[in-house]
Every structure is written in C-alpha cells, then in structure tokens.
Amino acid sequence: MKNVILGISGSIAAYKAIELAKLLINANYNINIVLSKSATDFISPLTLKSLFPKKVFLAEGTLDDHDQMLHISLAKQAGLILIAPCSANMIANLSNGSAPCLLTSLCLATKAKTVLAPAMNVVMWENLIVQANIKKLKERGMLIIPPSSGKQACGDNGVGRMPEPHNILEYIASIDFVSYHTLKGKKAIVTAGPTHEKIDPVRFISNCSSGKMGYNLAKAAQMLGATVTLISGPTSLNPPENMELIRVNSAQEMFEAAHRKAANCDIFISAAAVADYKPKSISIEKIKKGADFSLKLEKNPDIIYEIKSQFPHIFCLGFAAETTNHLEYGYQKLKAKNLDAIAINDVSKGKVFNEDYNELTVITKNGTEFVIEKNPKLEVAFKLLCTLLK
Ligand SMILES: Cc1cc2nc3c(=O)[nH]c(=O)nc-3n(C[C@H](O)[C@H](O)[C@H](O)COP(=O)(O)O)c2cc1C
C-alpha cells in the first residue's frame, strides 16, 4: 500500500478532492490530506475531518500528537505527493521554493515523487509566468497532469479544468509502470464484456461479465503507448476516452470485428466472456409460454483461436474464468488455442465478476507461472502487460 499525501489548494475545483480522496482509498492507497490556508475557503475542514478522521492536516499544522515536526514526518512517510487541485499561487510557491504553509514545506522536505493537477481559469493557465513556472517544475522532476478543456466555473471556455478524479487516479496508478515500460508503436485489440446470444426479440443468453477487466486492460495498454481498439460486448461502463471503440452484441459480431482489425495488429487480448454457444435459430416472434421448452444450441466461433491461427505473429493473451482445477484447465486452454499466455480468474463463489479488484494466475507458453496479487483492476492490468510485454 502506497502512502499518498493529497494536497488541496485554493481553487474552485477543491470540492472534487473529496471524490478523489475516496477513489484513492478505494484503490488501496493510504492517504493523508493537507490543505493550504485558502483551500479552507473552498472546502470545509469539518467536512473533510468527518469523512476522513485523523487524516486531515491544516496549513498551520506544525507538530503531531507525538511532538514530531509534521512537515518532516509527513514528508518522510510519503510515497507520493499529489496536489489536486493545484492553484497558480501554489505552482508559483513551489517553483520559487517558498514554504509559507505545511503543504509547501513538506514538498520541499520530501524525496517522494510530486504530482500536480493544476486547475485555474484559461487565461491564468496560459499566462506566461504560470507556464514558465510549470516548465521549471517539470525540469525539477515534478509531474504535471495536463488540465482538461471545457466550460469553466467562471463561465469561460478553455484549458484549465482539473481532470476528473477517476482520470487523476488512473494517472497515479500508471506512474510506476509508464516510466519503465512502453508499447509505443504497437497496435492492440482488446475484447471486453459479455456477449448476448439472441433467443427471440426480447430474450438472450449471456453471462455475468461486467467488462471492467477488459476496459482496464485497454486503458493500461493505451497509457503504455499502444494504439488500442476496444471491441466491447454490452456493458454499462463509460467508453474510454480517445480510443477506438467497436460495440458489438453477439460472439459472431465480436469475431467479425476482431477479424477485420487483426491484420495489422501486434497484440490481441481476449478479456471478453464470449458465449461458447448460441441458439441454433432465433425466433422472429416472442416465444410464448407453454409446456416445457428446450433450446437447441450450436457452437460460436472461437475468436482467439481463429485469430492466432490466421495471424500467428500476433501476441495472443487469453483469459479463463474457472471455478475448479484452475491451473489444469488453464494449461489445456493455453495449448488448445496456441496462446502466448493465459490469465486465469478464479470465479468460484461469485468472485471477480463486476468487482473492482482482481487477482490472476498467469501461465506463459514456455511454462512460466506467476501470480498477480489482489489489486484494483487497472493496477492488475498494468502488472500483467508490463510482465508479459517487457
Ligand atoms: C472564488 C475564487 C475562485 C478561485 N479559483 C481559483 C482557481 O481555480 N485556481 C487558482 O489558481 N486560483 C483560484 N483562485 C485564487 C486563489 O484562491 C488564490 O490565489 C489563493 O491565494 C491560493 O492560495 P493557495 O495556493 O495557498 O491555496 C480563486 C479565488 C477565488 C476568490
């Protein structure tokens, strides 16, 4: 678990820090929150202290319960400092090495990586002094999450908005991986979610897949530099930004989309829970209730098998969801489909489906086995890709 200091400075975006703090905790980070003096004009310390007891420190904080100097003890504990939102004034203080409050002091006293999420009016953001300060901070090794563009609190339109908390979380989760690994220049296809196999106009056969693992794999591959096409079965997830998304319903449609895209791709990740079978015929009319009823099923195309057979150069990573004999079935599937690697989910007792966390057992084609411990799915995705594609 990583210790993160979440610094909040005086910006109208300070209210978003509550959601960010919750997301960080949910993603297994141990957080302490440090407010600048003016941050308390935007967000109440009482609210923060009620939501995050014993984790909130104010600007004038100097000593903790054990009489330790807070700016030093917090700075030493920190694995990462994230200031979100980061005001123009905070940026200026940091670039000057000024330390008027606890947050600025501990930024000077730490060896931890510091990440800033600037948030301000578009004209302030474009101001040459602000940009010069940003340049200086980047040169000193601080990481800047680019502000997003859009309608601002003051009514202006342009760059300067703090990115959404989930985007900041993704950035934080990627830091350790993105600096050391790259998929730049690679093209990846990721399949995700369940498929719907129609029975009649109102009914279908499907499964419990939420698509979360596949969407996180697509996101991680993209953040590592790959150009990603996500082929998604029906899910309720938000579409990833700046990524080609092909929505499909059935296994046949997923197969056709994958086949269309595969020729010039380098990596194929099959995280979708593709239905093995589909009804042999689809009733045009809604089937009426009557006596006992049985469905005749036929096999769906085996998408990853077909892709690997036709395009042997593609690195193919399959997924297996098993309730028993995980390794044995994993090895069988790896061999039968001639995969480069397989990641096995233990889905016994309802685990994995729709959860935000996952753990995987992975087998590669040369027989190496490794386990990725339980973590948020984005982190699991980074670990999986970085281990297999280093
Ligand atoms: C209503 C209001 C909204 C503000 N919003 C921002 C903002 O979004 N970004 C920013 O850099 N400054 C903003 N400011 C100015 C900062 O709050 C001011 O520079 C303050 O001194 C920042 O202090 P700090 O960096 O120590 O938190 C705003 C001021 C007011 C009164």
TrEMBL record:
GO cellular component, one term: phosphopantothenoylcysteine decarboxylase complex
Tagged with keyword Magnesium: yes
Catalyzed reaction equations: N-[(R)-4-phosphopantothenoyl]-L-cysteine + H(+) = (R)-4'-phosphopantetheine + CO2; (R)-4'-phosphopantothenate + L-cysteine + CTP = N-[(R)-4-phosphopantothenoyl]-L-cysteine + CMP + diphosphate + H(+)
Start and end residues of each stretch annotated as Phosphopantothenoylcysteine decarboxylase: 1-187
GO biological process, one term: coenzyme A biosynthetic process
UniProt-annotated catalytic positions: C154
One Pfam family hit: Flavoprotein
Domain of life of the organism encoding this protein: Bacteria
Amino-acid positions noted as binding CTP in the UniProt annotation, renumbered to this chain: D276, K286, P301, D302, I303, I304, F319, K333, K337
Enzyme Commission number(s) of this protein: 4.1.1.36, 6.3.2.5
InterPro entries referenced in this protein's UniProt entry, alphabetically: CoaB-like_sf, CoaBC, DNA/pantothenate-metab_flavo_C, Flavin_trans-like, Flavoprotein
Pathway field: Cofactor biosynthesis; coenzyme A biosynthesis; CoA from (R)-pantothenate: step 2/5; Cofactor biosynthesis; coenzyme A biosynthesis; CoA from (R)-pantothenate: step 3/5
Cofactor: Mg(2+); FMN
Key words, A-Z: Decarboxylase, Flavoprotein, FMN, Ligase, Lyase, Magnesium, Metal-binding, Multifunctional enzyme
A GO molecular function held by the record: phosphopantothenoylcysteine decarboxylase activity
All copies of domain Flavoprotein, residue ranges: 2-172
Occurrences of domain DNA/pantothenate metabolism flavoprotein C-terminal (ranges): 183-387
Span list, region Phosphopantothenate--cysteine ligase: 188-390
Free-text remark on how the cofactor is bound: Binds 1 FMN per subunit.
Biological role stated in the UniProt entry: Catalyzes two steps in the biosynthesis of coenzyme A. In the first step cysteine is conjugated to 4'-phosphopantothenate to form 4-phosphopantothenoylcysteine, in the latter compound is decarboxylated to form 4'-phosphopantotheine. Catalyzes two sequential steps in the biosynthesis of coenzyme A. In the first step cysteine is conjugated to 4'-phosphopantothenate to form 4-phosphopantothenoylcysteine. In the second step the latter compound is decarboxylated to form 4'-phosphopantotheine.
Family indicated by similarity: In the C-terminal section; belongs to the PPC synthetase family.
UniProt name for this protein: Coenzyme A biosynthesis bifunctional protein CoaBC
